[in-house]
Design brief:
The complex is a heterodimer of chains A (160) and B (249). Chain A is built from one helix and eleven strands; from the N terminus they run H-E-E-E-E-E-E-E-E-E-E-E. With 160 residues, chain A is mainly β. Chain A has one domain. Chain A is elongated, with a radius of gyration of 24 Å. Chain A starts with a helix and ends with a strand. Chain B is an alpha+beta fold. Chain B contains five helices and ten strands. Chain B has an eight-stranded antiparallel beta barrel. In chain B, strand 8 and strand 9 form a beta hairpin. Classes of the chains: A mainly beta (160), B alpha+beta (249). Chains A and B meet through helix 1, strand 7 and strand 8 of A and helix 1, helix 4, strand 5 and strand 6 of B.
Chain lengths: 160, 249
Amino acid sequence: MLRTLRIGCLAGVFLTALLLAACRPDCSLSLQTKLNVSFWNDSLGRESRPVVRVHRVGNDSILYDSIGVSMLSLPLHDQQSSTDFEIQVFASDTTRSDTTFVLHVEHTPLPQYISPECGCSMFHELHKVSFAGEGTEKSVSVLSNQVTTDAHEVHVQVHL
Amino acid sequence: MRSMYKYIFSLLAAVCVCTGLWADETIAVNTPAADDETEMSNMTRDDRRALRGPAYQGFYLSADLFNPLAGFWNGGRHEFEFSADLGLWHRLFPVVETGFMLQNERSGQVSYGSRGFFLRVGAGYNLLNNQWSRQADHAIILGARYCFSRTSYQASGVTIENPYWGESGSYDISPTSVNQGWVEFCATVRTQICKGFFLGLTGRVKAFKHSYENLSGMPTYTAGYGGEDGDSFNFGLSFTACYQFPYKR
């Protein structure tokens, strides 16, 4: 009797554990993938927080409207292999002038199936990041060429 | 995901306690009359070596019972795991573990298929090494492993929308293989149920995951590691049945 009871308890606990294994947690990942751009002040030797205005080339839709940011998060094309953004950097003092340049990004979109709970997202592999137009003396460093769901990873660093 | 594993672990810990108590009654054990520590300290080195016995103390083959059955409930992912470990002085347990994973999942318009294998190599140290536990080869083992996994995956019908650029489309993921490695820290409780047969419960913490190539994408579930939830570590649990090859005591 006692042996049967023990076998029943073990089987019941095991089956309960299996049923709990079927539980699906909610998605804890952000599906938005964006190119993160930070700014580096060469003369000060540290990250800077310039006031910028950012919009996509050929469209007045503004992403950042004259605000000070330490990092830009820019959405890339899913169906094209290059994306351009116009970035206007406002001078920090009256002795300098504002600069406007086009950030040109060449990338490969990579569709990803994250999980049944999260759904799908588009990753990007960066190939080339460069400037065009005014301010081309600025340099850019690619810190990571994988644009994924990690919202805190800095991919590109602009040297002002 | 962590809270789910907490509940599963607590339930299976209860299973292990029950099996341990059950095993304690079904196996005849000659418990020593004197206190083990006092008796050991009064012995000479040769006496302790004689008591410890030869180096080889058992070869164990184990198979995971939990994950193969969980595949019928977790949406179509079946994982199988086998291990072989050697008992040395009932203290050290070098171990090799291997397994494979099959996954076919359909969620809405997305059809996802994946398969992979993994290999773990490591060793464990038995914390339970008194005369009573050596009689029945019960063990509580803390161990570490280095793990390697190769996972291949593909998908179709992946729908992604980009509201900023006004883009929307359905994409296919061509067959892709990734090679990854990580480190595991594990704890195992193993008790003998009847002569030569054991039940074991192992909890794992998996960390320091890295890729062997410049990863352009990732599978939904990495064989042996688990799913990606944005954390730098992962948990694992296995409930195993084990056979011990007889050895001369």
